[in-house]
Design goal:
The complex is a heterodimer of chains A (56) and B (239). With 56 residues, chain A is mostly helical. In chain A, 75% of the residues lie in helices and 0% in strands. In chain A, helix 1 (11-18) crosses helix 2 (20-53). Chain A is rod-shaped, with a radius of gyration of 23 Å. The N and C termini of chain A lie far apart (84 Å). Chain B is built from 10 helices and no strands. The longest helix of chain B is centred in the middle third of the chain and has 24 residues, at 135-158. Chain B is mainly α and 239 residues long. Chain B is 71% helix and 0% strand. Chain B is globular and about 55 Å long. Chain B has one domain (2-236). The two termini of chain B are 22 Å apart. Classes of the chains: A mainly alpha (56), B mainly alpha (239).
């Protein structure tokens, strides 16, 4: 009987599959914290622009 | 988003289908809806009235007008706040795996702490309405989130892994505090601290752990949230 070999998964996918929980938490923290940091930077940038425009 | 990436990486399209179906697992028994929609607010009120000074500040509200405000806010919190975006990851992806690896209680404690710490940047956000003036506030927050995680795990396990019910539970927690609790109890001791939640959810969490002997409704033989493929892969490489 012949069997079809499974499609070899990419290295990255293998890593995710081997460590699903660690990968999930790293991604969950990274995506959200980066989004928070960007949001905060934009807000601070906007506030700074208002501050330097105010004297006019 | 992470839960969808990880589910696809570990279980493929079949896993995504299973995850999505748990969003609409609504046939779980009326008592669970009553618990998440009325029981959780009741826990919050009970935890608050034992805080010294809280009862003295009670303000009567017009039930009809408050209810007409509460329902839209509930929907808003559910759709745009944490519940809909957080729960598929924490309870949908991580909890079943943590329970399988470490058991329901230890798995939930790990998840509770990680869930709480994930909120850390919010402590620097002026728009976040959770008390955040001191390190003690962070400690209360971690304890509250861990106690809440125990309550949510109990709901999740008893509703065959329904994401809908934990999303409703999370929305109930967030919306009731913002819309009703702080208006009924305007005392600074309530709005300026999470002690009332530590007392309320902490007591319920301890009660659930004692009554279920740490099982929190978990049935390994059912393990509805995990796919057979995932079980095999984790048995092969216990990481």
């Amino acid at each position: 009987m012949t069997t079809t070999p499974a499609q070899p998964a990419s290295g990255r996918q293998n890593l995710l599959a081997r460590h699903p929980l660690v990968s999930f938490f790293v991604m969950a923290y990274a995506f959200s914290w980066i989004a928070w940091a960007l949001g905060t930077s934009l807000r601070m940038g906007s506030a700074f622009c208002h501050t330097i425009q105010a004297p006019r | 988003m992470s839960e969808f990436i990880m589910t696809y990486a570990t279980e493929g399209r079949v896993g995504i289908g299973r995850l999505l179906r748990r969003f609409v697992r609504w046939r779980v028994g009326l008592r669970w809806y009553l618990f998440v929609l009325l029981g959780i607010p009741a826990i919050m009120v009970l935890g608050t009235i034992v805080v010294p000074g809280a009862l003295a500040s009670v303000r009567a509200l017009d039930p009809l007008s408050e209810l007409s405000l509460y329902l839209p806010l509930f929907v808003l919190v559910l759709l745009l706040g944490g519940p809909l975006f957080e729960e598929p990851g924490w309870r949908g992806f991580a909890l079943p795996r943590l329970q399988q690896l470490h058991g329901p209680l230890v798995g939930t404690l790990i998840l509770g702490v990680l869930w709480a710490l994930w909120h850390l940047p919010e402590f620097f956000s002026p728009s976040w309405d959770t008390p955040k003036g001191s390190v003690l506030d962070v400690v209360w927050f971690v304890i509250t989130a861990t106690a809440l995680a125990i309550v949510y795990t109990w709901v999740f396990n008893n509703t065959r892994g329904s994401l809908l019910l934990v999303i409703l539970a999370h929305a109930s927690t967030d919306a009731f505090g913002a819309a009703i609790l702080y208006k009924v109890f305007p005392a600074k001791v309530v709005s300026g601290s999470l002690v009332n939640f530590v007392i309320g959810f902490g007591a319920v969490a301890l009660l659930l752990v004692a009554l279920t002997r740490g099982r929190l409704g978990y049935r390994p033989e059912a393990d509805v949230a995990l796919t057979p493929a995932l079980k095999q892969s984790e048995e092969a490489s216990p990481t």
